[in-house]
Amino acid sequence: MAAIELRGVTKRYERRGILHTDSVTALQNVDLTVEDGDVFGFLGPNGAGKSTAIDIMLDYVAPTSGSVRVLGHDVDSDSVSVKERTGVLPDGYGPVSERTGREHLEFAIDAKDADDDPDELLARVDMLGPDGYPVDQYSKGMAQRLMLAMALVGEPDLLVLDEPSTGLDPNGARTMRRIVREENDRGATVFFSSHILEQVEAVCDRVAILDAGRLVTVDSIDRLRDTVGGSARVRLELSTVPDGVIERLEGIEGVSSVDVDATTVDVACENRAKAPAIATCYDSDATVTDVSTTEPSLDELFATVTEGTA
Ligand SMILES: Nc1ncnc2c1ncn2[C@@H]1O[C@H](COP(=O)(O)OP(=O)(O)OP(=O)(O)O)[C@@H](O)[C@H]1O
Question: What is the value of pTM for the model shown?
């Protein structure tokens, strides 16, 4: 079963200005399937439509056209079943009240009729201690950790994390990544929207890239790298540089240049050419004493995929 299915989803908002009203198309005919058990990254520049898509999945906003199924339920007619089995970390909403973090969490546990141990959840997000303070005294990062603990209540089948790293320091971001992995190991599907490409790369199996309301690609990060190409590099230390090996490297499809400095060979290439380049050196008369590789960054890949589509 697919955890999330969007079919032909379009969303137009009316924008009321002082002098006139126009409309903006936040999503344009989006088809998206997130398989059960995926850790799925949802990427896109500002204004691409990510929050709108999430709001539609959770029935906070109705699409102008199209249909949405989440965890097998039609979101329009059965949003209660979806909400019962989904944990949400929303973007930009922190808890604002004089109640303590623990009280918020206990409320979330009661509301979901769950039997979670608040101490256990607070410990998972490193919030045991500050949980006794009123949340209006929390820093952004503390509020974000508390919201994450609340999203975990009731062992949801689907976790929707909208920009989960907002306000988190590196330790908090590490905690969040660990929790995403733990939840996925437990069997939950995780839908993870972010601008922070390294976060997505560290935890996601597949990514969708949304740009100006259109889905421009859905793939694994590795396959995206292969498709987009980009600037991978392979550096090989050889015992000696045998005759003909440079020409053989230059002849591999996807290799753009080969530089030699004494016995160090630097190959600039597309991602797909890395393995053949390494194999060519191993198959030569030289002994390969060291190999290091770098991949095109997700930043580079993101820029390539969204270029010209905005
Ligand atoms: N309630 C609304 N009324 C009018 N326009 C809206 C509304 N919500 C979003 N939009 C518009 O829809 C488009 C998509 O916005 P959305 O917030 O979904 O993008 P996003 O990818 O989440 O952006 P960001 O990364 O900046 O949060 C934008 O042009 C935005 O101005």
Answer: 0.79
